[in-house]
Design goal:
35% helix, two-stranded antiparallel sheet, 6 helices, 9 strands, alpha/beta, Rossmann fold
């Protein structure tokens, strides 16, 4: 399965995927292209070092969200992409784009959804006094961080945590979990029934 990765910044989740691909740990998944909505971000340099095709589709160049999404889709089509991974992609996708890739867009979020959706989830968890946080990998739908959950891993919140320190520990789990979900998706192991997704567990087994 040819996978397109959408990025907006540093690209640590992208790096986890690139490293897994270099170790032949993505199964039949192939990273076909990396697309950023912001020029000159570190994620693009990561793709270049890995010799993966990459492109910029700048959202500021388009008058509407859907026009931007259609331009991204055209770039994905040029690379024969079949599934999409959001790896630190900081844009909400239009319903048109989501409908184009049914149950084939996945995202990671640094909380145990449905708790603390949206921005700054580790800071939200600390402000709430949560004892557990973690990472969720989910299918993307038209809602904000509300698509069906594929896998989750818990990360304890420490008494001395800052939002930064908690986020770093969550990222460690994120970088391990995301490649295994991409592998399961590409292999056809994931099945979706309503909000229930079968075919993956949080220990990384399809």
């Amino acid at each position: 399965m040819r996978v397109g990765v959408l990025v907006s910044g540093n690209g640590t989740n992208l790096q986890a995927l690139l490293d897994a691909a270099a170790r032949n740990e993505l199964g039949v998944a192939q990273i076909a292209v990396v697309i950023s909505n912001i020029p000159n971000v570190p994620a693009l340099a990561r793709a270049q070092r890995a010799q993966v095709p990459h492109a910029v589709v700048a959202h500021r160049d388009f008058a509407s969200r859907e026009a931007f999404d259609r331009a991204m889709a055209a770039e994905l089509d040029a690379h024969q992409v079949e599934a999409v991974v959001l790896a630190g992609f900081m844009r909400i996708l239009s319903p048109w784009f989501v409908a184009r890739y049914p149950a084939r867009i996945i995202n990671t979020h640094p909380s145990l959804l449905p708790a603390f959706p949206g921005k700054d989830a580790p800071a939200q968890a600390l402000a709430y006094g949560a004892k557990l946080s973690g990472v969720s990998v989910h299918f993307v739908d038209a809602s904000l961080d509300g698509g069906p959950l594929i896998a989750q891993r818990a990360v304890p919140v420490r008494a001395d945590d800052t939002a930064h320190s908690l986020h770093l520990r969550i990222q460690q789990q994120e970088h391990a979990l995301l490649p295994s979900v991409v592998k399961a998706l590409a292999s056809g192991a994931l099945t979706v029934s309503g909000r229930h997704v079968l075919g993956h567990d949080s220990d990384g087994h399809a």
